[in-house]
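Batch job 17 of 40 flagged for manual review because the log was empty.
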Amino acid sequence: MKVVLVAAVALVDPDGRVLLAQRPPGKSMAGLWEFPGGKVEPGESPERALVRELHEELGIDTWQSCLAPLTFASHEYDDFHLLMPLFVCRKWDGQAKPREGQVLKWVKPLDMKDYPMPAADIPLIPILRDWL
């Protein structure tokens, strides 16, 4: 089974809310809410991938030094196995804006249970809730 490496980030605002993005129509798992991020390209570190993805997807800039590793998800889907490190970031330049058709929402960790998420993301919620 193919292993797919995806880096994700919990962007945390000063009020302790985390940014979630809703996958747009036409993408796999459309309508589900997830942490921003994306596939790690060959030869790219997860941190570098997040810096790139945050700029591409949300129009914000951050630095590898501002990405703190928190935990990871390892989940077997039907046609691939997802390995997803989750980082926390509290410092970036710019205001997050949807650039790829996604809907964005700042959510308190206690309320994340009300947002349907991909199976791999669900076990990350209590870790975030306890950490924040």
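Reviewer: the log was empty due to a logging misconfiguration, but the result itself is present. The radius of gyration is 14 Å. Unflagging and moving on to job 18.
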